[in-house]
Amino acid sequence: MPIINRIADFADELTAWRRHIHQNPELGFEEHETQTFVAEKLEAMGMKVHRGLAGTGVVGSLTAGSGEGPSIGLRADMDALAMEEHGEHPHRSANPGKMHACGHDGHTTMLLGAAKYLSETQNFDGTVHFIFQPAEEGLGGGKKMIEDGLFDLFPVDEVYGMHNMPGIEVGGFAVAEGPMMAARDNFEIRVQGRGSHAAMPHQGVDPVVVGSNIVMALQTVTSRNLDPQQALVISVTQFHAGTTAFNIIPDEVTLRGTCRVFNGEIQKSLPERITRIIEGVAATYGATAELTYHRGYPATVNAGGPSEFCADVAREIAGENGKVDLAPLPSMGAEDFSYMLEEKPGCYIWAGNGGSAGLHHPEYDFNDELLTVGASYWSRLVERRLARAA
Ligand SMILES: [Zn+2]
Ligand SMILES: [Zn+2]
Question: Are residue 70 and residue 132 in the same domain, yes or no?
């Protein structure tokens, strides 16, 4: 595959950086050492560096050529997950209960690799903002960076993201226009019944039976309310009721769960549809039910032009025998790069991590062979999108 030669020259250095970050994982909004590591590397490349957006965010800026070309943002995430690593390799996590199980150590390093190459070669006309964001895993660090003024301080015409993907060969990519990742909302439902002795259920209103009916009825939103061509998952993941006693029907039940969907209109309609179901089911049995709905990450949606362009860059990096999947099934997982894509046109691509364990698995490890592939992809993206006038 056509990795840029100069990037291949510093493959060992990138591997050392990636393993250092892997060994020292930090959770969302606590990426202080990672922030320092990234900022010092960018400064050593002679770049202007801003620290502190969303607390632990870093932005390095590089202008080349006439300085009047367009601006683009390239984004990597830096946070780890709260879990124990099971892998036995020498660079395994030194921080108990924390692990880079989603490959953000690799994302950070690939973007640093591109920054190193582009700051040396400067073969483009315009400005690149290298965006290192905290807290992708559930805490919305990308959103916080935007709220803290990311695109006011660093205006960009387009913004680009990349995530490694186990199961795709190293050197392969997957990218398409439209949704790549789902929106993710969470909900809580409180069912109020009336407790009683378990032997005399007629004296109360059993919220466990009502809650069970609600769990079943919610599945009809997907199966009976939605166009079968659309995708929606509603999963009830928690059902809390009762005490340790076997013989008490409790007063109330709490259900919690998550909704995943690609279409923004459907996402907007969910609270009303869920409310109608839970209130109707509860009323059938003489109970009441109340919904609390939390909107989470929006869907990650690629713009047409940028995704075609990225597919072309990916084809160049993948080379003759490499595979670029132009029609991947979108994932029902969620990703907070979506907030950046809501603000700016751009594209989010998957880069193959080979046959590693899956994302968020305790034996997962980022594949170091991907470092030069990803850094080459970023670099060619910049050189082509911000091409010097011939
Ligand atoms: Zn993750
Ligand atoms: Zn991730």
Answer: yes
